[in-house]
Amino acid sequence: MKMRFQLSKMMIVIILLFPAVKSGALGTEKPWWIGIYAGTCGFSENTGLPEAEYLSAGIFVEPLSVHVFNPALKCGVIFPIAHCRKEGVLFQFGGELTLIDIPASGLRDRFYAAMCISPAVGADYLVSTDFQSALFDVSISPLRFRAGDGVLTLCSLHVFIIESPGFEGWGLVLFEAALFLF
Prior knowledge:
Elements: H1 2-17, E1 34-43, E2 54-61, E3 68-80, E4 90-100, E5 102-103, E6 116-117, E7 120-128, E8 134-141, E9 143-147, E10 150-161, E11 169-180
Antiparallel strand pairs: 1-2, 1-11, 2-3, 3-4, 4-7, 5-6, 6-9, 7-8, 8-10, 9-10, 10-11
């Protein structure tokens, strides 16, 4: 058993040391324009949302597919993982603006397609399921990576603004993966 564990660790190290076989992307890099997303997030206490870890899922549209100031629109749902209550479920309507796609040539040998670092800013309108309350947030996503057919976002910061002007809380999207379908 111990020998098998040592062998598996050695195989993992060998796999990580050698670059992947170069191949084309699963599809052409452009013009993808519609897809699905899923992610995990959490919010500070003063946002008024129930304390829980949240999952988000939905669809997005990226109509232009340009490398600078590329807009995208999304709609979906955010719901708590544990202690799921109706108050915790929110509809999400938002937009995102990719500032620039910066080729990450150092990552080319590790992934199946060319990667770009694609920082973005965005805004979301979160509405309760009974449409009685709403939250507005602005976001910044500096750790965002784009491949030919997907986008991966890590640690996106959200700042919430509730009815009165000003800072009302914050949120953190730990991980969000978006996959283009068409």
